[in-house]
Design goal:
heterodimer; A: alpha/beta; Methyltransferase, Methionine Synthase (B12-binding Domains), Chain A, domain 1; Rossmann fold; five-stranded parallel sheet; 10 helices; 14% strand; elongated; B: alpha/beta; TIM Barrel; six-stranded parallel sheet; two-stranded parallel ribbon; 16 helices; binds cobalamin
Chain lengths: 210, 377
């Protein structure tokens, strides 16, 4: 049965995944197990993507299915277990840039891989982002950019993190089509990518997952 | 620029025809916002008035010593909505955003599933003006007419100003691939779901839009007398979709379009943003010399050149990140590499990867021009 759910997700069979989820919850199966099976499906999707057999389109579709499945499962999880996560991530688009497409895809994928994600929104002043890092004790903070005017603000956020003594305890990731390794160095980030799945892989690796 | 034997236009067309040139032709994609930045005008001003946008572009052209052909860029974000180029909601500096912001589009599911068949029935223009435009803007018919007149008037002045400077516009006709237009109208996530779960209506709409595009753009392009038109796609490449999607929804229509233009002797400038590495071999199927590939720095232009050497001209691709945050010597070195490896046998036009970024470093922009001027084609 569990095999089947992950395979259905891998085959992007949206309706079948949701029906199976509902069916299994209906038999009073442990919701956490159902959620874990969906997550294994996402791991398989991620592996295919990294092998080059899946494309961004399939990542997006599977993550959307996962989101719908999780919306059915999560209300059934007890509070403590719902909080069980692989790590806390803050993601936002900094001041000067109001784009959210790439950011939203990253968030959906991170959640599907078991991370607790807080969306900071768009056009976020660097000082506010840093304040949120402080409050949330996040393990990672990710900045997304579609336009180059966001770079100086990313750099400023890193400087502010340093000044607040927080830089050591949070990994800074940047991403979005305009970013490059040179921009990572300019900003002083730990990680850069134009591929959301690589970002997820980085978080998994850093937190000791596979 | 001693020793130059060709005019800008001769140089450009030699490159398009895959012939050698006295030096590499240079055509930066200097649109209104980076021009405003280099000319010291606010982004809000050029976003509100396309005549000022043209002034800014010409001022930079003159201040920086000119180049071989001018990329049309005198339009405002509102005019892009009014002329059915950007079918999305837009936030404009000075109106919805601070003055020094870049104008930006909002990704939202505006197009609904049942609209695909309305497009197939009404044609894209009918659908756009009778229904869709009201969903993304408050432009009235009078507003639309006024904006289109402003576009037209400024373009006439652009032509005169080009003549004074003995150069020509890079193109005039300008169309988006139907696949791209639909992705923007429906939003990328919604469109992707439709492609996988309800493909037939999408396919019907693309078929109709392709016919509309050919019927509208060929006469315009012929009338311009320039011989080129711009065909934009930024969301169909192998970065986004597998070959099965590309082969069903994109490639056949693309071939149809390029063939129709080429049968009239018109060259298609493909504006291809994002990573096209996996798709480049398909372009060998198009007639030699019938198109130019404009790449944005994400596709490996050096590898692409090897696949299409002697078959198509390339334009680009100095990355936006390099122009905005690197040092002039880095920009210079990258341009030299382009000229040597992509331009070695002709068939290359030096330019920015997509638009010059709106916060370009003046020294970096200059470095790009100088690297091109000092290089044999
Ligand atoms: C499609 C596109 C458009 C479309 C729609 C844009 C929109 N929705 O706003 C259209 C044609 C309308 C358009 C218009 C313009 N565009 Co445009 N556009 C693009 C393009 C090709 C792709 C953007 C896209 O849809 N990506 C799809 C999403 C899913 O990808 P993504 O954001 O990169 O996110 C992925 C990853 O990067 C990752 N990710 C994202 N964030 C993060 C964060 C972290 C922490 C991690 C780990 C991962 C991660 O996850 C996602 C999935 O893998 C980019 C090129 C590029 N290289 O990005 C140019 C680009 C953004 N555009 C550019 C420009 C200049 C413009 C225009 C100004 C042109 C003009 N004057 O007409 C306008 C301005 C509009 C605007 N900015 O809103 C420039 C911006 C340059 C600059 N100054 O910064 C770019 C970079 C192209 C270039 N190289 O010059 N554009």
């Amino acid at each position: 049965m569990s095999q089947k759910l992950s395979d259905l997700l891998l085959a992007l069979e949206r309706d079948a995944v949701l029906e199976t989820v509902k069916g299994r919850l209906g038999t009073n199966e442990d919701p956490l197990r159902v959620l874990e099976d969906c997550r294994s499906g996402m791991t398989l999707v991620g592996e295919r993507f990294q092998r080059g057999d899946f494309f961004l389109a399939e990542l997006i579709l599977s993550a959307e299915i996962f989101k719908d499945a999780a919306a059915i499962i999560e209300p059934r999880l007890s509070r403590a277990r719902a909080d069980h996560s692989r790590g806390r991530v803050l993601v936002g688009t900094l001041m000067g840039d109001i784009h959210d497409l790439g950011k939203n895809i990253l968030i959906t994928l991170l959640r599907a891989h078991g991370f607790e994600v807080k969306d900071l929104g768009v056009d976020v002043p660097p000082s506010v982002a840093v304040e949120k890092v402080k409050e949330s004790k996040a393990h990672f903070v990710g900045f997304s950019a579609l336009i180059t005017t966001a770079f100086p603000n990313m750099k400023q956020a890193v400087t502010l993190l340093q000044e607040a003594g927080l830089r050591g305890r949070v990994k800074v990731m940047i991403g979005g089509g305009v970013t490059t390794p040179e921009v990572r160095d300019y900003v002083g980030a730990d990680f850069q990518t134009t591929d959301a799945m690589e970002g997820v892989a980085y978080c998994l690796k850093t937190t000791g997952g596979k | 620029m001693a020793g130059e034997g060709m005019s800008g236009t001769e140089r450009l067309w030699a490159a398009i025809r895959l012939e050698k040139t006295d030096r590499v032709p240079i055509v930066p994609t200097l649109l209104a916002e980076p021009a405003a930045h280099l000319a010291g005008i606010t982004r809000a001003k050029v976003a509100a008035d396309n005549a000022l946008a043209l002034d800014a572009i010409l001022q930079v052209f003159d201040d920086y010593g000119g180049w071989d052909s001018i990329y049309p860029g005198s339009y405002t974000p509102q005019q892009l909505q009014a002329s059915n180029v950007n079918p999305m909601k837009v936030r404009i500096p000075g109106r919805d955003l601070p003055d020094d912001y870049m104008w930006q589009l909002v990704e939202e599911e505006i197009l609904q599933p049942q609209d695909y068949d309305r497009i197939s029935e009404m044609g894209i223009d009918g659908f756009y003006y009778q229904d869709y435009l009201g969903r993304i803007s408050s432009l009235s018919t009078d507003d639309v007419n006024r904006e289109i007149l402003a576009l037209f008037t400024t373009f006439q002045r652009f032509l005169t100003e080009c003549q004074k400077r003995k150069v020509k516009p890079f193109f005039m006709g300008n169309g988006m691939h139907p696949f791209f237009t639909l992705s923007l109208m429906r939003s990328m996530v919604g469109f992707t779901k439709d492609l996988y779960y309800h493909p037939e209506p999408v396919e019907r709409a693309i078929r109709r839009m392709t016919a509309d595009l050919i019927a509208h753009q060929i006469p315009l392009t012929k009338e311009s007398g320039l011989g080129t038109w711009l065909f934009t796609e930024e969301r169909a490449s192998g970065y986004f979709y597998p070959p099965a999607v590309f082969e069903r929804f994109w490639w056949p229509y693309t071939k149809q379009v390029v063939d129709a233009f080429w049968s009239e002797g018109l060259v298609t400038i493909f504006h291809l943003d994002q990573r096209w590495d996996k798709n480049i071999p398909y372009f060998r199927q198009l007639p030699r010399g019938s198109f130019i590939l404009e790449l944005d720095g994400n596709t490996d232009i050096f590898a692409a050149k090897e696949v299409l050497r002697g078959h198509a001209c390339f334009h680009g691709d100095v990355p936006a990140a390099l122009l905005s945050v690197a040092r002039p010597e880095d920009v210079h070195a990258y341009c030299r590499k382009l000229v040597e490896l992509v331009g070695d046998d002709g068939g290359f036009i030096l330019g920015s990867g997509c638009s010059v970024p709106c916060n370009v470093e003046p020294g970096n922009f200059k470095a790009m021009l100088e690297a091109g001027r000092g290089a044999r084609g």
